[in-house]
Amino acid sequence: MDLNTDDVSVYHNIRNELQEYANEIGILINNAGVLLDKPGRYLDLSEDEVMQNVRVNISALLMVTRAILPFMVNNKRGLIINMSSASAVKPLPYTGVYSASKKFVEFFGSALGYEYKNDNIHVLTLVPSYVSTKMVQFSKFLSKPSFIIPSAKTFVSSAISTIGHTEHTTGYWAHGIYWFCIQYFSPMFAYQFFASKFLTSQQPKVESSRV
After folding, report:
1. N or C: at which end does the chain have fewer Cβ atoms within 10 angstroms?
2. What is the pTM of this model?
3. Is 172 a residue of the active site?
């Protein structure tokens, strides 16, 4: 299913197709997301790339949740897991649109959880750092699993264990340490300086891989 669309009928169809399973629906995982092929300044992005970030990272999450949430309200139970990112802790240069979209996910999840807690609906917001997936294939370093960059399987196993214990978590122990340090011990100027240096240093790897 292509979520890079402004056609709201796509989401109406999702709800209609799930109607026969209405009484069984209890979990929604909003994991769809898009990151640019490589870091870059805002004007380096095409209009299509900007809107793709908005549609997939924000609009799709809102509309899929809107399609599924009524089932949970009627059933008086539900778990919604929203995938944000550690890039939302502080504004991240060279991935500014992505970083901002993930901050939206974080804020929306927190508000939604409060609004529907009396309906026995729980919202868990995950704010991981880098996970070794195709999304970070612009960097050989980030693409290689390690103790600080878990594989998707390792991350999921860790994140699942947090369900029922918190409403907001990185989902992985090493990412929790990173998040804490960035949040409380890293001044904004220092974080943006070193993060931007790292991200821009990854660009030649992308360009050389396309030759």
Report:
1. C
2. 0.86
3. no
